[in-house]
Amino acid sequence: MGKIGKLIKQLEDDDPSVREHAILELGDLRDTQAVGPLIKVIQQDTIENRRYAIVALSEIGDHSSIEILIFCLMDYDEGVRLAASRSLGKFSSPQAISALMVSLKKDPSVQVKSRSALSLGGIGSEIAVPDLLTESKLERPPTLLYSIDTALKMIAKKNGYESMDELIQSVKVKVTKHLEKPETEQLSEKEIIEMIPNLWAYIRKFVIQQLEGIQTMLSVESNEKVAETKIAEILGDKFWQFSNFLERKNNLKLSDFQTDVLWQMCWDTSRPIRVEIFQMIKDHRIEIHEIERYRKWLDTIEDEKEKTETIYGDPIMPEPAQIKAVKDETKETAADLVRSISGEIEEIMDKYSAWKGKIQEDDDKDSFEIE
Question: Per residue in 105-135, pLDDT tens?
Answer without folding.
Answer: 999 999 999 999 999 999 888 889 999 999 9
